[in-house]
Amino acid sequence: MADQRLTHGVSVAAVRRFLGDLKREFPDTYTEMTTEDACKQLVVPRTRQDNCAYVEQLRKQSPEHVNKATVFVSHAWRYKIADVLNVLLEFAQQQARKDDGQPVFFWFDLFMNNQNANVTANLPQEWWSTTFKQSIANIGHVLLVLMPWRDPVPLTRAWCLWEIFCGISNEGTEVTIQLPNSEEQALENAIRSSYKAVTDTLVRVQAQRADAFNPHDKHMIFTAIESWAGGFSAVNQAVKDQLRAWCLQKAVAAVEAMRARGEDSTDAFAGLCLNVGAVLSDFGEHDRAIAYFETALPIYLRTEGEKGEGVAALYNNLGLAYDNKGKYDKAIEFYEKALAITVEALGEKHPSTATSYNNLGNAYADKGEYDRAIAYVEKALAITVETVGEKHPSTASTYGNLGNAYDSKGDHDKAVHFYEKALAIKVETLGEKHPSTADTYNNLGGAYDSKGDYKKAIQLYEKALAIQVETLGEKHPSTASTYNNLGNAYASKGEYDRAVQQYEKALAIYAEALGEKHPSTASTYGNLGVAYQNKGHYDKAIELYEKALAIRVEALGEKHPSTATSYGNLGVAYQNKGEYDKAIEFYEKDLAITVETLGERHPSTADTYNNLGEAYRHKGKYDKAIEFYEQGLAIKVETLGEKHPSTAQTYNNLGIAYDHKGDLDKAVEFYEQGLAIKVETLGEKHPSTASTYNNLGLAFKNKGHYDKAVEFYEQARAVYVEALGEKHPYTAMTLANIGLLHDKRGEKEQACAYTQQALDAFTTTLGPDHPNTRKAKGYLLRICGNDERDDGGARTAARGEDDDEQQQGGSEQVQAVAGQQDAADEDELQERSPQQPLAGWLQKRGQWNIAFRTRWCTLGDDHLTYSKGPSLAERGRIPLSSVLSAELAHGGEELHVAVPGRTFVFRLDARSDTSLADWCTAINSRINVTT
């Protein structure tokens, strides 16, 4: 009997017959009977005499209704039995419509266990974790009957949780969640009251809350789940994914049902369309949301007229949906319609009018028109203060919006000022422990992050996190947003492993609460990509960027600014891999979408021009790079103003390009312009200011002004140590530059000391295998006289005299604004990376005579190799880490590559399709690396 209990099931016809028996024997009460009631009043009386399970009687009477179980039913005994049986019948109908149409046989404990004796009471825990779990695997399908939809009972019962776990942890076992039709009306009523009802319900799905009568049972179940790779997150996500799909499906079905009943011209229908649209928009389905808003609009227009409040609300919702789609002009069009109605219907001095001004301000901020955004938000603020007073949450929110606009403008001090005003009001009116107060702590953290005060930013983010965990729970999207922000701050500090931990927490929450295919999930994949990119794991970064891109294309469409961001990030990653043509291909996709969605005159368009400039600079096409930088600069000056950190960064990039061209005076001119802006907007002690000090140091070193160079390098180092710490990669890079300069001056002891410090810092923060760590190790080997040999016989050494590191700006990570997490993965400029190989025919002079021999030469990331032909064995190699200089000689007729103890001499061959100048530039670009 034990084997039958574990392996057999009853047919659909048997379930239907049992439901019929209930109706006949309890016609007035069967709809209210629980499974436990049905057991006591029908199953036990029928089976008491034989002391057997219901299935045993069924087998004797109708053996065709008992067979190998195909579905294991997980449910709660306090459910109404009619609901449970109807779910089984609905499920069977759905299965019958599938291609295979195989008969369904349910393992349902009411029928399969002997209810006259507690057959499972004395089973050992080992039985549950082995035999029972294997039985579910053999059956192959778990049907979880879930209700009520707002707070499902099975997730509060440890044994129900065990059944779910046995399903999802067995590879090949399918888990299906089904709710009874009776829950559909409850969902519809909830959505009519609040479109947030679905999100709120999903947040409450937390399997960790489950309990059991016997503490030992709970311990066994929780231990098993926690020790499984997926853990509770996988259990929660399995439930939430299907519950979310059910909610969205039934919400839409409720609208269609009203339409089918001919109620599609009623106020109730319009109201339901409005809220269902808001639900869909909340889950990133903006196109479907717009369709429902547009369905509701004619009804509101007919019943309220053009100037109705409901019409204004719909226009605002349409504006929000288009805003989320990245269609900012269309959003503004709807916001202006809403504004016109509220002004005429309610007057200029009304809170609803202030809301419309706020929405317009946010849309213009998204467009990059920050001064216009500020003007609208200031109008909103004046109205809000006059109508509801200074000490009101709405006033605080408007101060927050002003802070957002100033933060985007680069005026972080002003942003902090407004955020602090917002915070004071929220603490006073809502209390310290309120989600909205947490939002303001987040925004303050973002401003301090932008100011380079990462320690302060992390403190504020942690305050926000503590409040959100306490008030919203660990598994809420807003909590995930704060984990993302913490990740950004740790990434800025150079603590990339810690950043990854925060991003992974955010990702798990978003995937659970909003689903894998949600834009916020995509953003977090992007953030993880940036972190792995900074760790030097470019292939991993590309994998994550591609995940983000796939989600964004599906959720937001190809023509969306966030999709453009993903293309841009892929470009950066391929640039870091040295695949510049592929990088340019992605940057051009980014540019086309950005121009189409945001316009030519937008800061994001300027960023993409900058990225294109970077790719061409890495290819050695400096004039082309300068052309793109200048396009970016013109846009930034026009949209952000001359005195903006992002404008300063473009001046910095122009300086790097002219530095590589050899026009050092022009390079210094651009560096100094950038420096002046950074000091004014970010302050003397900001990491971005330090990057320009570093680059000025390099330029003056190249000009031969060593004392001036040391002065700038030391200024950079002091700022980095204070802002980022001794072990940050930027600090390490500047230490390496100082070491190289001392080496240039023949000051070996100081050179070795600084380079060792750089190596230690790189190893600590980036690990021994990161390109920067390997590079620093090479520097140390050369400077400090290590005699280790490389394959080609030349002594292994670091870069030559011009090895210094130039710095572009770090990643510009966007922080949470009013509690909404934007993609933090839009990096303006990234690290300099490996170069594309250069190959061709050259003539090489022999070591012991003056004869030149034709050789096929290949310049890679680390070596210049030569052979007798493209497919022939390598004859020798020159480690680039040993190169002291590469320069043209004899009027450009020869290329001299100097290493310790020898100078290699090359001439052009008749078959050469590149010039010696090309080779010289390419070699020098590899021994003058930027990060």
From TrEMBL:
<keyword id="KW-0677">Repeat</keyword>
<feature type="domain" description="PH">
    <location>
        <begin position="835"/>
        <end position="928"/>
    </location>
</feature>
<feature type="compositionally biased region" description="Low complexity">
    <location>
        <begin position="807"/>
        <end position="822"/>
    </location>
</feature>
<dbReference type="InterPro" id="IPR019734">
    <property type="entry name" value="TPR_rpt"/>
</dbReference>
<dbReference type="Pfam" id="PF13374">
    <property type="entry name" value="TPR_10"/>
</dbReference>
<keyword id="KW-0802">TPR repeat</keyword>
<dbReference type="InterPro" id="IPR001849">
    <property type="entry name" value="PH_domain"/>
</dbReference>
<feature type="repeat" description="TPR">
    <location>
        <begin position="564"/>
        <end position="597"/>
    </location>
</feature>
<feature type="repeat" description="TPR">
    <location>
        <begin position="312"/>
        <end position="345"/>
    </location>
</feature>
<feature type="region of interest" description="Disordered">
    <location>
        <begin position="790"/>
        <end position="837"/>
    </location>
</feature>
<feature type="repeat" description="TPR">
    <location>
        <begin position="606"/>
        <end position="639"/>
    </location>
</feature>
<feature type="repeat" description="TPR">
    <location>
        <begin position="648"/>
        <end position="681"/>
    </location>
</feature>
<dbReference type="InterPro" id="IPR011990">
    <property type="entry name" value="TPR-like_helical_dom_sf"/>
</dbReference>
<dbReference type="Pfam" id="PF13424">
    <property type="entry name" value="TPR_12"/>
</dbReference>
<feature type="repeat" description="TPR">
    <location>
        <begin position="480"/>
        <end position="513"/>
    </location>
</feature>
<dbReference type="Pfam" id="PF00169">
    <property type="entry name" value="PH"/>
</dbReference>
<protein>
    <submittedName>
        <fullName>TPR repeat-containing protein</fullName>
    </submittedName>
</protein>
<feature type="repeat" description="TPR">
    <location>
        <begin position="438"/>
        <end position="471"/>
    </location>
</feature>
<feature type="repeat" description="TPR">
    <location>
        <begin position="690"/>
        <end position="723"/>
    </location>
</feature>
<feature type="repeat" description="TPR">
    <location>
        <begin position="522"/>
        <end position="555"/>
    </location>
</feature>
<dbReference type="InterPro" id="IPR011993">
    <property type="entry name" value="PH-like_dom_sf"/>
</dbReference>
<feature type="repeat" description="TPR">
    <location>
        <begin position="354"/>
        <end position="387"/>
    </location>
</feature>
<feature type="repeat" description="TPR">
    <location>
        <begin position="396"/>
        <end position="429"/>
    </location>
</feature>
<dbReference type="InterPro" id="IPR006597">
    <property type="entry name" value="Sel1-like"/>
</dbReference>
